[in-house]
Design a protein that fits this description.
five-stranded mixed sheet, 2 domains, alpha/beta, 10 strands, 42% helix
Length: 298
Amino acid sequence: MDFLCTFVADKPHDSSYSPMKLIVDSGSTKTTWLLLSALREAASEFHTLGINPVRDDEQAVRAVIAEAAGKCGEAARSVTAVYFYGAGCMEPYSGVVRRALGDAFPAVGELSVESDLLGAARALCGHEEGIACILGTGANSCLYDGCDIVRHTPALGWILGDEGSGAVLGRLLVGDVLKRQLPEAVCAAFFNRFHLTQADLIERVYRQPQPNRFLASLVPFLAEHVEDASVRQLLVCEFRRFLVRNVAAYGRPDLAISFVGGVASHFRGPLQEAVEAEGFRLGRIEPEPVRGMALFHR
């Protein structure tokens, strides 16, 4: 990735490098924008709020994209290609993102809006066949042929699925702490860290909005206690459930399994143990996909 010579966060790019390409990785909470010169001589990276067209109305989507165009500065007029990968970017919802990008970057001749899962696959596998997985607040997976997704096990969200995700790991942690299934020292450390009672936890999960994000916010506690045998077992067992319920369905044990996302990158050891226990081969693990996406579109 040495062509990505310089990353300057939240600063406009020098418009003398033209034409430009814009690579975008958009989640529900954060969007990463990578502005590249066509000659790969320089790059700028900046961030905005997340975009999810399933959740957000057109005004909200346009506001975020307009902010991104403003951060590009004069270079916005030189952007001739945009490759946007985002949560919720499926038909018919992706149309609003496509229209907003076209209006914000008027010189664009090539404009692609695809799902975050396809973006992860292209970032992890490039132009090679493979199995690509997302392990973050949510979880997802696909069988990828080097260009497109050819099979996909439905993720189903944190209540019905999302095995191995931050939300599910947080849910398991809370349940095990409240039912005293973890060592007393771990349970005591949990309550000392978060100062939440059982009633507080029930309130946050059952009555307040976005309980999946709250549960995922507890995952750093697992990282702090990963050396505890019971915590490591919780992680390995849940990652094995992810593989059994999602990846095994592809019937391709010959392919490496690669991962992107904060959960995958923080728990490399337990994840590798789970992959090997299920007879698979571990590929790459990356915290974020945007630089891999840039490599795919070079």
